[in-house]
Every structure is written in structure tokens, then in C-alpha cells.
């Protein structure tokens, strides 16, 4: 089976099923809110894994684990996959407080003001009560929960995507680290479009801008995912990174007062800048390894076993 067919069938399945799920949800009157959209999101996230598994098992009759990268290989890069998103969140906070009109606060007043328009009177009263009566600072409880969720339940949900993007595509793509990274990032970003049109990543009222921000961030962060996948030898490590990023995306807002969501919110300019900064640090670290580097343009970068 030609490599182009291996990629084309995968894209046809993942993009097609994703679009069908979102369209069916919208036609049934679904809106981007509540538990129903959470179920839709998880179903979409697991589409890449299911399509990749079907092509690998029934199409090419190869074992799933090596092709999809579903190998548990605990090493220091699993830890890096968990810690790097925390560094991204910290840099996001540092960049955001430099924005005019934005200030740092530990009392979560800025967060309360930001979400107040979305709450009714009873919900606002409950939030005020929690801010006062919580046994520990609410920002601390939320941050700890996000960090723990990132490597557990969030990682499990993200594994559906990562077994596709950093598993199957990692196995079938050819080329240098940067060529594979760029191609995967473009596919990954474009795949989000139906969900963004439904209301996902609603950073601004302009849907086209939201699609563009989603695409650009997927491209910016793609080298981190590819690096963790290559160094760890497993798409599970990439899932831990993915789940932790998702969990921490809104945490900087707990400490910020003022500023637009486009500037300081998830996928906003501060998140983009922080992500780029972490990518540069990781690339600089890997580059100085010399012959052991995988990010150098002429390095001997190897992907996984190809099902073609």
C-alpha cells in the first residue's frame, strides 16, 4: 500500500467522522455547553485512535502498539511531558502581567469579574461563598486538581488524539524532524475546525479568528509534542503533555485581573508567546546535544514502524 494511501485514508476517516459527529450534534440542537458537548469532545478526540487502529489491524494486519506508539516506557521524558505545560502556564502568567491594564492577584477577584456575566445571581453567590469558605485558597485547589487531572483523566482522553497524530502519523510520515512536525501540526490544527465552528476555543466573537488561533497554536506547540514522542518512545507521553496543557490552559486567568481574553486567555497572545518560549528552550537544549540531537536539520531523525 503506497504511503500516500496510508495517510489519505487516515485523514479521510478522522476528518470525515469528526465532521459528521459535530454536524449531527448541531442538527439535533446541541450547543457548545454542558455535559453533552463534553461527551462529543471526547468522542471526537478518540476518532484518530479508532481510525488508525482499524487501518493498522485490518488494513495492514500489523500489531497496534508499535505503530500507534502505545508503549509504556517510563523515563525522564514522561516527567518532561508533565512539567513542560506547567512551565508554559508560568510563562503565560509572566507575559500576561506585562500587558498594560493587567495585574496579578491571589484573591481571584479578576477571575470572578471575568465569569460574572455568565452566572446568574445564585451562581455568583455560590462562587463568592467558595472564595471565602474554602479550607485552602481556591486558586491552589484548582491548580493542584488541574495538574493531577492532566496526567490521569485528561491524558486518557488525549490519548485518542495522540495515538493518531503522534502515533500513526509518526509511523507513516517520512522526513526530517521539522518536516514531520510541520505536517502533523497542520493536520492537527485543521482537524479542530468543525469543533471550533461549533463553539470550541471561542477566544473571540469572530469564528474565523478562533480557527486561525487554533491552527497557529497547534503549529507553534507541535515541536514539543514531536520531541516528547521521539525522546520518550511513546505516544502515551505525548498524551500526558496534551492532557496537562488542556487542564492548565485556563489556570493563569485565576491570577489575572483585566486584559482581554485574546491577550491573556487560553490560546491568546500570552499563551502563544509562552509556548514559543518553551519550544525555543527545548530546541536549544536538544541542539546542544550535537550528534545526539534530533532537531538539527540534517540529523538522523527516525519515526516509528511504517504500515506501508
Question: Gist?
Answer:
The chain has 15 helices and 2 strands. The protein is an all-alpha fold.
Tell me about this structure.
The protein has 15 helices and two strands. It is globular, with a radius of gyration of 20 Å. The chain has one domain. The longest helix is centred in the C-terminal third of the chain and has 26 residues, at 207-232. The relative contact order is 0.18. The chain has 308 residues and is an all-alpha fold. Helix content is 69%, strand content 1%. It has helices spanning 3-27, 34-45, 47-59, 64-68, 76-96, 109-115, 121-133, 138-150, 153-172, 177-191, 193-198, 207-232, 235-248, 261-264, 269-287; strands spanning 103-104, 256-257. It has a two-stranded antiparallel ribbon. The model has no long low-confidence stretch (mean pLDDT 92). Helix 3 (47-59) packs across helix 9, helix 5 packs across helix 15 and helix 10 packs across helix 12.
Shape: globular
> What is the CA-atom radius of gyration, in angstroms?
20 Å
**Proportion of β residues?**
under 5%
Number of strands: 2
Q: Tell me, rounded to a whole number, the average pLDDT.
A: 92
The biggest beta sheet reads: 2 strands, antiparallel
End-to-end separation in angstroms reads 5 Å
Encode the helix/strand succession as letters. HHHHHEHHHHHHHHEHH
Amino acid at each position: 500500500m503506497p504511503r500516500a494511501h496510508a495517510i489519505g485514508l487516515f485523514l479521510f476517516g478522522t476528518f470525515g467522522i469528526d465532521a459528521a459527529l459535530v454536524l449531527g450534534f448541531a442538527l439535533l440542537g446541541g450547543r457548545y455547553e454542558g455535559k453533552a458537548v463534553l461527551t462529543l469532545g471526547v468522542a471526537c478526540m478518540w476518532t484518530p485512535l479508532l481510525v488508525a487502529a482499524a487501518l493498522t489491524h485490518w488494513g495492514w494486519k500489523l500489531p497496534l502498539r508499535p505503530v500507534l506508539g502505545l508503549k509504556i516506557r517510563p523515563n525522564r521524558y514522561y516527567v518532561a511531558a508533565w512539567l513542560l505545560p506547567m512551565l508554559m502556564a508560568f510563562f503565560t502568567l509572566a507575559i500576561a502581567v506585562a500587558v498594560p491594564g493587567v495585574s496579578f492577584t491571589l484573591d481571584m477577584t479578576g477571575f470572578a469579574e471575568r465569569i460574572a456575566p455568565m452566572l446568574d445571581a445564585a451562581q455568583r453567590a455560590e462562587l463568592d461563598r467558595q472564595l471565602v469558605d474554602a479550607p485552602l485558597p481556591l486558586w491552589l485547589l484548582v491548580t493542584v486538581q488541574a495538574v493531577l487531572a492532566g496526567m490521569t483523566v485528561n491524558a486518557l482522553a488525549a490519548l485518542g488524539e495522540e495515538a493518531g497524530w503522534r502515533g500513526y502519523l509518526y509511523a507513516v510520515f517520512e522526513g526530517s524532524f521539522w518536516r514531520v512536525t510541520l505536517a502533523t501540526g497542520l493536520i492537527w490544527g485543521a482537524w479542530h475546525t468543525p469543533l471550533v465552528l461549533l463553539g470550541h476555543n471561542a477566544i473571540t466573537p469572530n469564528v474565523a479568528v478562533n480557527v486561525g488561533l487554533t491552527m497557529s497554536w497547534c503549529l507553534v506547540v507541535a515541536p514539543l509534542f514531536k520531541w516528547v514522542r521521539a525522546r520518550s518512545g511513546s505516544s502515551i507521553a505525548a498524551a500526558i503533555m496534551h492532557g496537562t496543557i488542556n487542564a492548565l490552559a485556563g489556570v493563569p486567568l485565576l491570577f489575572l485581573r483585566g486584559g482581554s481574553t485574546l491577550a491573556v486567555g487560553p490560546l491568546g497572545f500570552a499563551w502563544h508567546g509562552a509556548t514559543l518560549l518553551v519550544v525555543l528552550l527545548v530546541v536549544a537544549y536538544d541542539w546542544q546535544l550535537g550528534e545526539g540531537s534530533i532537531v538539527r536539520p540534517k540529523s538522523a531523525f527516525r519515526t516509528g514502524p511504517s504500515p506501508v
